[in-house]
Write a structure and sequence with these properties.
555 residues; alpha/beta; Serine Threonine Protein Phosphatase 5, Tetratricopeptide repeat; Nucleotidyltransferase, domain 5; Rossmann fold; eight-stranded mixed beta sheet; five-stranded mixed beta sheet; 21 helices; 48% helix
Length: 555
């Protein structure tokens, strides 16, 4: 309330300063930005007056792009005051100008706005067409997404994400043949996730060659099912792909706000060892929304692995911790995460001629404030003890230049880094810690992609031990997906939060034992390690066994 009062007090001052500016492109955009950012403070008629004046000034200097933006913004005000016809006419004029100028970074906004207006007027078919057009325009802008609206304030969550989610909602609302286009719905959310990663890296980042995850399951791994939950404003849609069966979906009538609240509370509680009871209660809610609707089908399908392509805040929690009232999900299924519908071509893990580059820090550089990791040496020794040919960079030898040089010596199949690190929704805050410096995510592709004789082959398994997602950052796992992509790894094993390094050493040792000795899949090796912790009184709390997740290829 205080901030609103302060803002209101500043309004007359800003208005007088804007009025004194000479009429040019910069001053017109300044006025339009002021109008748009004052939507919750000034009455609609005042904002409309400012935008109408901006349009007239844009006409006076023959700035067609500013005219488009003024007309479209004015249409948005009419949309808010429910003057649908006037809003539609203004938006159509704004779109026509933007298309004549081939100004895609403005056109997509008016295509989206027309989609909203047509939806509210009940014309779902035309609304879907305009939403499709907006998304196609965004796709054409992909490499320039970070430059969208160079003259206008841009926020990914406000200006891009809602288009994809509202488009998916329309698909489920449209009656048509009585069944929504589930494949289109999945691809729309996948396109959103790609756009999020592009925005994370500030560039179009996903250009590797992938295969479609459905085809992998149908042809090669019939014991795996793919869950694709989609969080919409007033419902949760769970799309399921069972091997060699068409897509199916279930609708759970729960709001996005409630889903997000449960996830955020669970994420806060799960790192506290004494809150296991609360964790179970919240996990059971999520289980009832996500898994329970498909329980019967899963039982008869014979699947033993669940691959989740999580949406939104669901990426911040380990699916292993979902609770049915008796058991955690990991006690019934091996679990993996995929950043999207496409993955590196999977290959069954083989211990023949297996080589590993391991690195880590037990001593923390003086300029860093992280806690020491005394069990790192033991963790790295466990890998070597399993007979894997290992090259180790430890403490003062674990520096960025040596890491880059060593990984180029031969095509390592495993890269295991036991060191502090942080996953954030911002690339400039996502890093792993070497002895000489922080290695940020943008550097990983040059450091971790082998230039040896098999440089076209990705690293089979990247393990990031002791890393964590940034506290309070609800999109921090974008950083984890970003690291996995930049490292060019088929599979990435990482922790969502930092745990006692004794617990980490226990889990990592058991994971590698299962992977190498029992010759199970990576997801199953992680499952067996987590179950062993569950049954050990010293490590049985969810805060200790659940943070590790397998991202990418699960076999």
């Amino acid at each position: 309330m205080e901030k609103t009062a302060d803002a209101k007090a500043l309004i007359p001052i800003i208005q007088s300063q804007l009025a004194s500016l000479p009429v040019n492109r910069s001053s017109i955009y300044a006025k339009m930005n002021f109008a748009r950012s004052s939507k919750n403070i000034l009455p609609p008629e005042d904002i409309a007056r400012i935008l109408a004046q901006s349009w007239q000034q844009a006409q006076s200097i023959n700035d067609r792009l500013a005219q488009s933006y003024a007309l479209g913004s004015l249409g948005e005000i009419y949309e808010q005051t429910k003057q649908w016809q006037e809003a539609q006419e203004l938006t159509e004029k704004a779109l026509l100008i933007a298309q004549e100028l081939v100004a895609s970074d403005v056109a997509y906004l008016w295509q989206w706005q027309l989609g909203r207006l047509l939806k509210i007027q009940g014309n779902l078919k035309s609304a879907i067409a305009f939403y499709d057009a907006a998304i196609n325009t965004l796709q054409s802008l992909r490499s320039d997404l970070v430059a969208v609206n160079r003259d206008v304030q841009f926020n990914f969550r406000d200006s891009v994400e809602p288009i994809y989610r509202q488009s998916v909602e329309l698909l489920f609302q449209e009656k048509g043949e009585g069944k929504p286009d589930l494949d289109k719905a999945r691809k729309l959310i996948e396109a959103l996730q790609v756009a999020e990663l592009d925005n994370f890296f500030r560039e179009a980042c996903i250009n590797n060659k992938f295969v479609i995850i459905d085809e992998v399951v149908d042809r090669n791994y019939p014991n795996s099912a793919i869950f694709y939950p989609v969080i919409l404003e007033n419902q949760l849609e769970i799309i399921l792909k069972l091997p060699n069966k068409p897509l199916s979906h279930k609708t759970v009538l729960v709001s996005a706000q409630e889903v997000d609240q449960v996830i955020m509370q669970l994420r806060a509680d799960i790192v506290q060892p004494e809150r296991t009871k609360k964790v179970k209660a919240l996990s059971q809610k999520l289980y009832n929304w996500l898994i329970q609707p498909y329980e019967a089908e899963l039982k008869v399908s014979g699947v033993n692995t669940l691959v989740f392509i999580p949406d939104g805040f669901l990426r911040n929690i380990p699916m292993a911790v979902l609770y049915d009232g008796q058991e955690y999900l990991v006690e019934k299924y091996a679990i993996a995460l995929s950043p999207g519908l496409q993955i590196f071509t999977p290959q069954p893990f083989t211990s023949v001629y297996l080589t590993a580059l391991t690195g880590g820090l037990s001593e923390i550089p003086k300029n860093e404030r992280f806690a020491p990791l005394p069990n790192v040496k033991n963790e790295l020794n466990q890998i070597q003890a399993l007979g894997i040919k290992t090259t180790t960079l430890f403490n003062e030898n674990f520096i960025s230049t040596k890491l880059g040089k060593t990984i180029n010596d031969q095509p390592y199949r495993i890269v295991h880094l036991a060191t502090h690190g942080k996953f954030s929704s911002k690339a400039k805050e996502t890093f792993i810690l070497a002895y000489d410096k922080r290695i940020y995510v943008d550097e990983l592709d040059t450091l971790l992609k082998s230039r040896g004789q098999n440089s076209t082959e990705p690293v089979e398994l990247l393990v990031l031990s002791a890393c964590e997602t940034a506290t309070g950052d609800n999109r921090a796992t974008l950083g984890l997906a970003g690291v996995a992509i930049k490292a060019g790894a088929r599979s990435t094993l990482a922790s969502l939060w930092n745990i006692n390094d004794d617990s980490t050493s226990f889990l990592i040792g058991e994971f590698y034992y299962q992977l190498i000795t029992a010759k199970v899949t990576k997801a199953e090796a992680l499952r067996q390690a987590q179950i062993k912790m569950l049954k050990n009184d010293n490590y049985s709390r969810p805060s200790q066994w659940s943070p590790y997740v397998m991202v990418g290829n699960w076999v």
